[in-house]
Amino acid sequence: MTSRLFGTKAPLLRRFVASVMLLSMIGGVVISVVIATAQLNHLNTEKEQAARLQLENILDSAAYAAFNLDSAQGFSLLKGFEGDHLFQEVTILDNYDDVVASIEQPHHEDHLPGWMHALLPVHETYTLSYPLSFKIYRDSQFVDQHVGNLIGLVNFHTSEAEFYDLVWTICLSTMAEVLLIAIILTILFHNQIGRPLSKIIDSIDKNAKLARQKNARLLKIDGHENDEFGLLVHAYNNSVQQAVSYMRELESAKAELKALSEIDPLTNVSNRRALLSELNTLCNNEHPFALVSLDIDDFGGYNDANGHQEGDVLLVRFAHALKQQLPQASISRTGGDEFVCIIPSQSHQQTVEDLLTPLLNVAVKEDVASTPWISTSIGVAFFPENGHTPRQLLHATDIALYVAKEAGRRCVRFYDKDADIARSNREAVRKALQRIIETKEFTLYYQPKVSMKTGLVTGCEALLRLNHSERQQNVAHVDIVEEAERTGLIVALGREIMRRAFYDVSHILDHLPDDFRFSVNVSPQQLTSDGFIAELLSCSEDNDVPLQSLDIEITESSQMINTDSTNKVRNWLKNAGVTVSLDDFGTGFASLEYLLTYGFDQIKIDRQFTQVLPGDDDAKAIFNVVKYLADKLDMAVIAEGVETLDQETYLLNQGFEYAQGYFYAKPLTIEDFMRFVANRQAKHSSCLDS
């Protein structure tokens, strides 16, 4: 039982036994101190009473000795206290506190331990003082007269030594009793609690080992069926049964989830998770392979036309075609109509292209709607040439696939670093465009339009310029405009530019000539967009700038076709007093019919023709034709890009009046533009007056 009681498997029992023994010892000491303290006080009280009795017996004799100042009688009287360890010292004093007689016992060294003095109310000595009086005859009668004092210093050392023995006797007896109780309680605890608990622990350990083999058995403990241990075992058995059932279900669910987590349920090929895992393994093995990204051309349109159910059938068919054409490849569907294939041990472009070419046109079964063939776009990257990690390789195939789509689809393209850089630059431009539209953090510069005859400023063109933060990203304003037109965000960007132009002009309009017009470039998409007219009215009213001060410049574009929408907008602009200019004439898609049907107010000849004047005969011919057409159609002409005096002189001699270019001023901030206008007015007005 001893080994069982203090064995390694019963730490709780060991702690219980140790705690009971420690508490028993502390309790015995405390009880002993309390009893000893009471006994000490009792002994001291007895000693004090005995000392008082002895001193009171010699009061009269001591008073006589004190009255007569008889030291011999006093010493004789105190002789009886010699050897009495009850007193440390006895003294007779006269009425002036002078010693008449005194006796002092030899000093005994205190050998009691220091903790005794700290814990117990131990007193070394106690002083007893009695006044002495003697009857004398005075004024025909006897009266008591104070003649001195009898003082006794009681010594308690003897009682402390006795008490020391008493304390140890009490402590030992108390500790023996408490220890006996602790042993009895420990045995009782072991039999009633420790042993059943040990059995339960052993059974749980055995069940835990069996559970690893999926063969757990129920726990039983005899003799405790109806007590708390029986309830504990019953609850444990229930939990074991539930846990075993749950673990079996969990193992089954894990197997299903693992399969689902790595297999695309529609096409039964690997999914993106399995693809990344396989790519990690291949990259670590460092064997060359080709990574191919494919998607079905215009799959979204196919879904819209035939429904998603037919689209799913098409995906299954395409996955089957991939397996047949690339039997050695690992095929994954990463989402939608996007598939990725790993072709092992391939690093030659021509070999891979030969394998993939049949997949550019895939035959579809006749029961898949009415489309017997589908085409695909394919991008290819190689390990390790184009990347060393799954992320790098997938990025490379995305770039190659993007190039394939840009090339017109239904083709194979390999990763190209220059294309990667170009796409990164385009992405930077796209992000900058979105920031500009969202935060409106851009600036408008204004390039003056000048009358070459008078030298005065007749208008200006608002030009987009980026703030410093965007320029730091190596993004140009030209790239911003091109990206906006490509993505359709030109409508939102043009709306913000229009608002800013109206706001800027509202601060300087009172200082400008009455016939002054500011020009804003408007995309054909913006011109025909919903709300364009309402936006113009709002800008005019909010900034108190009349629409008659606005000129809209439209760049030649194939999108600028003659439709009811454009005609409606043009008529409204004409009635509102807004002029419309054809910008960059000669570089786009304009035709004579285009000029006639739309009815522009001004034609701006592109700077590439102006800059070769006056020496280029072809440019001269173009200017002559444009001048003739403009006169016939009642349109004004503005020459863009005038940079030299010779160019201005030639244009004036040919009858042109309006020009724009660095010869007059570069694009200016609104403040610098106002100073430029004021200087030109001051300079050329004086010339005109003279």
TrEMBL record:
Q: Name one GO molecular function term.
A: cyclic-guanylate-specific phosphodiesterase activity
InterPro entries, sorted: Cyclic-di-GMP_PDE-like, EAL_dom, EAL_sf, GGDEF_dom, Nucleotide_cyclase, Rev_trsase/Diguanyl_cyclase
Question: Looking at the record's lineage, which domain of life comes first?
Answer: Bacteria
Q: Which PROSITE patterns match?
A: EAL, GGDEF
Could you tell me which CDD domains the record lists for this protein? EAL (cd01948), GGDEF (cd01949)
The GGDEF domain is annotated at: 287-417
Q: Does the keyword Isomerase apply?
A: no
Per UniProt, the keywords (alphabetical) are:
Membrane, Transmembrane, Transmembrane helix
**Which SUPFAM superfamilies does this entry report, sorted A to Z?**
EAL domain-like, Nucleotide cyclase
Domain EAL positions: 426-681
> Which sequence ranges are marked TM in the entry?
12-38, 166-189
**PANTHER family given in the database record:** CYCLIC DI-GMP PHOSPHODIESTERASE PDEF, SIGNALING PROTEIN YKOW
Q: What is the official name of this protein in its record?
A: Phytochrome-like protein cph2
Record organism = Grimontia celer
